[in-house]
Amino acid sequence: MDHKRNKPGKHAVSACLISYLHPHSASAEQYKAIRNNIRYASRGKTVNSVVVTSPSSGEGKTTAAVNLAVCMAQQGERVLLVDTNIRKPVLQHVFNLETAAGLTNVLAGQVDPEQAIHHTEIDKLDLLPSGPLMYQSIEQLDSKRMALVLEYAKGHYDKVIFDSAPVLGHHDTNALAARCDGVILLFTSGKTRQDRALEAKRSLEFAGATIIGAVLNRS
Ligand SMILES: Nc1ncnc2c1ncn2[C@@H]1O[C@H](COP(=O)(O)OP(=O)(O)O)[C@@H](O)[C@H]1O
Ligand SMILES: [Mg+2]
Q1: Rounded to an integer, what is the distance from CA 145 to the centroid of its chain?
Q2: Ligand 1 site, CB within 6 A
Q3: Which structural domain, as residue segments, surrounds residue 46?
Q4: Which protein residue's CA is at the shortest distance from atom 3 of ligand 1?
Q5: What is the pLDDT along the chain (219 residues), one digit of tens a residue?
Q6: Ligand 1 atom, smallest distance to 163 CA
Q7: For the chain, what is the domain count?
Q8: Whose CA is nearest to atom 11 of ligand 1?
Q9: Separation CA 138–CA 46 (nearest Å)
Q10: Which CATH number does the domain housing residue 35 bear?
Q11: How far apart are CA 48 and CA 79, in angstroms?
């Protein structure tokens, strides 16, 4: 593991880290409710790995993934947050990492998972940033090496949260979702069209993913 501690960055002073900066705010309470609902929704099945996704971009995936991860860590769970939105990664900015090896370097066989994982300022919350986009990075999200990364994460953390690419038009999100215990599907109220919401749901289910919750964001 990389033992640097990284402070939240400029991007962080937004909705992204509200659960950390304002743990008693109304928004933070809503993320705690989602965290608790994950437990109830799983009906006795353990849900250790959760993919946060939405039909399209800009619907609040990153915000929800970070806040959920923070709320889980606040309850004392060891949490790993993984940036699997490799085309447009942002978590390295949220947590102010300057140069960071990340998931793509692990998938390319350049480093081991522990060398790409960074502690954050938040107790019990570690981050596996995306790393640079390289030849085949996207394809490697559905590879044996990715399975090994998942195994590593499940073995070392109580919860693994994936900030993913949107579902529609991104086969890698479906593949990842199918390998995890559950998916949280976000919709932006007023923005997500019903047909796109249904298409995203069907696409995830067709891939074999388990949708454990739907969140109407910004309602
Ligand atoms: N519940 C919310 N309330 C207010 N603003 C939000 C909320 N969720 C997300 N946002 C804002 O919407 C924008 C897109 O959110 P983001 O989490 O980056 O979406 P995505 O990861 O799906 O592209 C950001 O500026 C974020 O701060
Ligand atoms: Mg995002």
Answers
A1: 18
A2: 14-15, 54, 57-63, 217-218
A3: 2-217
A4: 218
A5: 333 445 555 544 456 889 999 999 999 999 999 999 888 776 778 889 999 999 999 999 999 999 999 999 999 999 999 999 999 999 999 998 877 799 999 999 999 999 999 999 999 999 999 999 999 999 999 999 999 999 999 999 999 999 999 999 889 999 999 999 999 999 988 877 889 999 999 999 999 999 998 998 887
A6: 21
A7: 1
A8: 60
A9: 28
A10: 3.40.50.300
A11: 9
